[in-house]
Design a protein that fits this description.
By secondary structure, the protein is mainly β. The protein is built from no helices and nine strands. The strands form two sheets. The chain has a seven-stranded antiparallel β-sheet, with no helix packed on it. The protein has a two-stranded antiparallel ribbon with strand order 4-5. β7 and β8 form a beta hairpin.
Amino acid sequence: MREEVTYEKDVFGYPKVGTPVTICFLSDTYPGTVVWTVPSSRCIGVRQDDVTVVDGKYVYTPRTKGESEVYKECKARGGRFVRATATVSKVTRKSGHTFERTTYSVDDGGPSLFFGERRYYQDPSF
């Protein structure tokens, strides 16, 4: 049985920026880092880390630049964070004020996250 991994959370119960994560997609896992959070939208941003092998062990280096993927908390999947797609739409109020609204929808069957540690594994059977 896997021992429970602890990690720091913010006042809203979300992982803090800089928290290590494992991105789980089918049988493969990839290391990543939380780079932003938006608790009001129940979303976080994760950037995949670089992986190198040193003396037969994996060394994970967080990327400082590059795009991040959006993950949204999904109650239907037990509160797990699942990759989401952002949709931006223009909204015009009666007053004539126009602004952009971003909504996030969960990708069915997409990757999910495991917080507190980084792991890398690519299944050789695929």
